[in-house]
Amino acid sequence: LAAGLPFLKASAEKAKLKLLSANLREGEKSLFEGSTVWTGSGVKVGLIGLSAPGPALGAPKVTGAPVVEAAKAEVAKLKGKVDVLVVLAAVPYAEALKLSNELQDSVDFVVQSSDSRGQVAQEVGGTHLIGAGDRGSATRYAIQARKALPNEPLTHLLRAQAAQLSGDGATSRR
Q1: How many other CB atoms are there within 10 angstroms of residue 6's CB atom?
Q2: How far apart are CA 117 and CA 165, in angstroms?
Q3: What does pTM read for this prediction?
Q4: Among 44, 48, 70, 111, which is 20 to 30 Å from 98 by CA?
Q5: 174 vs 94: which has the higher pLDDT
Q6: pLDDT at position 68, please?
Q7: pLDDT > 90: what percent of the chain?
Q8: Burial group, residue 33, by CB count within 10 angstroms (0-12, 13-18, 19+)
Q9: Is the model more confident about 5 or about 119?
Q10: CB under 8 Å to 133, separation ≥6 — which residues?
Q11: pLDDT for 77 beyond 80
């Protein structure tokens, strides 16, 4: 959002990406869908997007609502409809830890990005909290995903991201 909402939307459309954020609001209006379901090899994966709470940098009329309440609402929508539930949380690590505690056993993974470098993946209740900068966990989970779903595009994306975090440019481009 730092470059502005119109730029973000145009870039996402050009790249054919779906933007998710259960808590970004312009006034009372939600800016994006809060979640989506992706299916691969018969496995339904629910993805919930969350943004940092508070005023959004670069978008003066946009505010991030509290993440826990927004996440719980999306979990309720997806419960019983998916096999795996992943929260993509672009929030500070402390906020992601709080979120993991609140959502124990409701979601399988919270993937946190923002200030995650140096944070170690951990299990909170039944939820795995992974900082996007955690190379070791990213690689381990990418290997597990590749074994379970070897021909799925999302699995290849996870592998490429893990390789990129590890500095393996050749593997990340494959």
Answers
A1: 9
A2: 10
A3: 0.74
A4: 44
A5: 94
A6: 95
A7: 37
A8: middle
A9: 5
A10: 113, 116, 117, 118, 119, 165
A11: yes
pLDDT surpassing 70 at residue 116: no
Q: Which residue has the tokens 């209006």?
A: 29
pLDDT at site 147: 80
Cα angle value 26/88/147 (rounded, 5°): 155
Beta bridge partners of 27: none
* Cα separation values, 142 from 7, 13, 86, 136, Å: 31, 27, 14, 10
Using CB atoms within 10 A of its CB, is residue 28 exposed (0-12), middle (13-18) or buried (19+)?
Answer: exposed
| CA dist., res. 4 & res. 59, Å (int) | 6
The CB density around residue 103, as the number of other CB atoms within 10 Å, is: 23
